[in-house]
Amino acid sequence: MRSSLTCLSLAVVLASLMPVLAGCGSQEATQIGAVLPLTGEYQVYGQSIQKGIQLAFDELTPEGEASRWRLTVADSESNADKSKQSVQQLFETGATAVIGGVVTDEALQSVPVAERFDRVLLSPSASSPALTGISKQFYRVFISDSREGTIMAQFAVKDLEIADIVILATETTYATGIREVFQTNFERLGGEVVELIEVPKTASDFSGLVGRVITLDPSAVYLACYGEDIATMITSLRQRGFGGHILTTSAFASPAMIERVGSAAENVLLTQTDYDPESEAPHIQAFVEAFRQRHGLTPDLYAAHGYDALKVLVAAIDKAGGEPTEVWSGLRALREFPGVTGALQFNERGDVQKFPRIYRISESRLVDHKKDLRQRQEELKRRMEELQRRIAASRRGDNGP
């Protein structure tokens, strides 16, 4: 039985790495590493990303054929220091490039390692503005928070006409980055931040903070946190009777998490890449169908980004002729690469050139807000036209269809 993905402790990884022959020649397989939070606080992201990477890797080689690629995955355990150590060990043992830095702190710790080895670290999901331009060896397939925060601020003021808001933000690099972008743009457009409530990273009881929001009674709240904290805050806000708008980030774009929150998540608004698993694009349909057959569920935003990360990295390695120190130039040379999360193209600062959209949670599903609004308007127009037709028919005495 073909072994396509090794997920081991680094000690086992080091003991198991050996040359692998590809095709009928003696070429050593190109090794790609991945460091993901498969356990711990951020496992909801890491496990989903792993599924996407696994699927993409299995598609590289038809069953029964030798592979020119080897993929080794290590668990960061949701610890930035562990992530850094794992990235270093993978480079030391010959990885041409590493997919890693799933969350901002892990990426920030691991970038200097990629710099030292002069090899690419490709993040599937870290989004802090602090990572933009940090190194010629760091790239990411996830949009920067500078775009997410800006789009949400514009939507809040111009579309929802929100005049006042309370921001709840955890004291993490990620949350601080996107909160600052949102706040700056919200205030620039004339909105008032009634209060910024900073949440200690170690906090587990948000009742006092939520109580403060209820006392302030703003038109809306903006939650800048990772998913588990967002879920807890949403539940607590609704339980305390908060009826205003709840706005948040793509960190909450996990169907499993949304379903767990249940009806409390109804009408929560968030930003995310324009990823549509119901798209009619053939390559997206193929990805979704293959994922459903394997896992029995629809791939979420993070599985899709894991899938794209492996696919685009392989394309870049090929463009670089397999030279580890030139993979960055292979990434920069890609134009409109057909990813399932959109066409992938990187700028000189390592950021992917994609734009977020606003999504609304409806019956535990993420729906594109503008697309849904347009469909509702079209349905309303159709019903009005049908009503007018019936009225006109009734006046003529014509009761036919």
Task: Describe it.
Helices cover 44% and strands 18% of the residues. With 401 residues, the protein is of the alpha/beta class. Helix 3 packs parallel to helix 4 (104-117), helix 8 (227-239) runs parallel beside helix 9 and helix 11 packs across helix 12. It is globular and about 80 Å long. The strands form 3 sheets. The chain has a 7-stranded mixed sheet with strand order 8-7-9-10-11-14-15, with helices on both faces. Strands 1-3-2-4-5-6 form a 6-stranded parallel sheet, sandwiched between helices. A two-stranded antiparallel ribbon has the order 12-13. The longest helix has 27 residues, at 369-395. Residues 1-26 have low confidence and may be disordered.
Topology of this protein?
Elements: E1 6-7, H1 10-16, E2 30-36, H2 43-58, E3 69-75, H3 80-92, E4 97-99, H4 104-117, E5 120-123, E6 138-140, H5 145-159, E7 164-170, H6 173-188, E8 192-199, H7 207-216, E9 220-224, H8 227-239, E10 245-248, H9 255-261, E11 269-273, H10 282-295, H11 301-319, H12 327-333, E12 337-339, E13 342-344, E14 356-362, E15 365-368, H13 369-395
Parallel strand pairs: 1-3, 2-3, 2-4, 4-5, 5-6, 7-8, 7-9, 9-10, 10-11
Antiparallel strand pairs: 11-14, 12-13, 14-15
Helix pairs in contact: 2-11, 3-4, 5-6, 8-9, 11-12
